[in-house]
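Internal tracking record. Fields below are filled automatically when a chain is submitted to the structure queue. Please do not edit lines marked as system-generated. If the sequence contains nonstandard residues, flag them in the REMARKS field before resubmitting.
Queue: standard
Priority: normal
Entity type: single polypeptide chain
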Amino acid sequence: MNQPSQVPTVPIFGIPVSRWGMTDTVQYLTGLIQSGERRPHQIITANPIMVMTALQDPAYMEVMRGADLLVPDGTGVVWAADKAGSPVKERVAGFDLLHELMKVGEDYHWKVYLLGSTSEVIQATAERLHLQYPGVQISGFRDGYFSQEQDADVIAAIREAEPDILFVARAVDTQEPWIARYKEQLGVPVMMGVGGSFDVISGKSKRAPELFQQLRAEWLYRLLKEPTRAKRMLALPKFVVKVLRDKENLTKPR
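SYSTEM-GENERATED OUTPUT FOLLOWS
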């Protein structure tokens, strides 16, 4: 587990989730980038589906526990922390964290590399982020459809671009393990999987309306818009049942 001692965490089934809110999280990540050390850090935006995947897959659990910072993205993780008696300050959604980092990046003229999604989506995302945050340099981008044989070329392109932040949007079972596998080679100070964020930024899809966000039901909006997610969403009720059933063991080491 790589999280430094100054990060207050709550263990959810052995996964150390940060208790910080957005402000402290952004301040911490800003410090990592501005330190000039360029030591690689993997940030994971943890949600119940990822937790359940980790409980079923030891390799994925190792990726989760090996991250440098896990923020409470999913509302179910926030709820579980409450049940554990060690509440987090607030939900830190990956989509919002991306934008908060871009805002700060304008002041410091950070360089950002975008990796993932389709060619059309990644190009539109790069263009829109450049317009919205002109002080940030989009130092490179490419789609997420590449094979393991192409990994070396992708890594070389990222290293050449020397970004301060790498945002990766690939399949949930691919993006975190890929970053974990290559983070030392990539050498980017902050690397974070952002799931479907590029789809929203590019305009391909819409984020849940404010009401769904306030009700902590963005998952329901996504399910209504994309019924094909139903099978994956089955992990949510399973997570709730497991938290309630194993409440006494929720925060115990595993």
